[in-house]
Amino acid sequence: MLNVVIFGAPGSGKGTQSERIVEKFGINHISTGDVLRAEIKNGTELGKTAKGYIDQGQLIPDELMIDILASVFDSFKDSKGVIFDGFPRTIAQAGALKQMLADRGQAVSVMLDLDVPEEELMTRLIKRGQESGRADDNEETIKKRLLVYHSQTAPLIDWYKNEGVYKHIQGLGTMDGIFADICKAIENV
Ligand code: ATP
Ligand code: MG
């Protein structure tokens, strides 16, 4: 199986590039953000819990996210591979993903780090908030999410370098250009 982790700060383009990867490589997509937003929309208990954290720009607790991830992963049958979008976001989640995959005879094939400067992230997210009305895309919450990214998520860069699967992707440029770099990285695994 081709197991791709797509990584980057909020607004780095994980969702956009994931859709293209899914189409080209025929793999399944797990977006933890999309899963949580669907739960919120459906008014489930999980959605209510998640909303409290998301509106504050905080992460949902690891134990909850790890359970969700495993159940979505196991719902894919005869999968050629999976793209993990928005997971892992903490060292604990990265360790849990490694264990979950190992239990199934699998491993992360490549981790793509979409690298985008902070000013550009701010601009993109504020624009997305205006266009989509996504509740956490407002200036105050974006600032909190970026702080959370730097403190809890960015340490995964060194973690994955240590695993030997890290790939830096220049996340500034045209969507086609970025996608071409991503394809090269995936084809090289
Ligand atoms: P991008 O714009 O690159 O797609 P994003 O950070 O804007 O990324 P999502 O990945 O959609 O957005 O996540 C939205 C929110 O959902 C996060 O701020 C967080 O509160 C919650 N969330 C998503 N994934 C996780 C996770 N793995 N662990 C904890 N919380 C999560
Ligand atoms: Mg997203």
Automatic annotation (TrEMBL):
- State its location(s): Cytoplasm
The UniProt keywords, alphabetically, are: ATP-binding, Cytoplasm, Kinase, Nucleotide biosynthesis, Nucleotide-binding, Transferase
**Which residues of the sequence carry a binding annotation for AMP?**
32, 37, 58-60, 86-89, 93, 134, 145
Q: Which domain of life is it from?
A: Bacteria
Swiss-Prot/TrEMBL catalytic activity: AMP + ATP = 2 ADP
Its cellular-component GO annotations read: cytoplasm
Q: Name one GO biological process term.
A: AMP salvage
Q: Where is this region: NMP?
A: 31-60
Enzyme Commission code: 2.7.4.3
The protein's annotated pathway: Purine metabolism; AMP biosynthesis via salvage pathway; AMP from ADP: step 1/1
Specify which residues bind ATP according to the UniProt entry for this protein.
11-16, 128, 173
Under InterPro entries, the record lists: Adenylat/UMP-CMP_kin, Adenylat_kinase_CS, P-loop_NTPase
What CDD domains does the record point to?
ADK (cd01428)
Q: Which GO terms describe its molecular function?
A: AMP kinase activity; ATP binding
What's its job? Catalyzes the reversible transfer of the terminal phosphate group between ATP and AMP. Plays an important role in cellular energy homeostasis and in adenine nucleotide metabolism.
Comment block on domains: Consists of three domains, a large central CORE domain and two small peripheral domains, NMPbind and LID, which undergo movements during catalysis. The LID domain closes over the site of phosphoryl transfer upon ATP binding. Assembling and dissambling the active center during each catalytic cycle provides an effective means to prevent ATP hydrolysis.
* Family stated for the protein in its record: Belongs to the adenylate kinase family.
Q: How does it assemble?
A: Monomer.
Output this protein's name. Answer: Adenylate kinase
Q: Which organism is it from?
A: Bacteroides graminisolvens DSM 19988 = JCM 15093
Q: Which gene encodes it?
A: adk
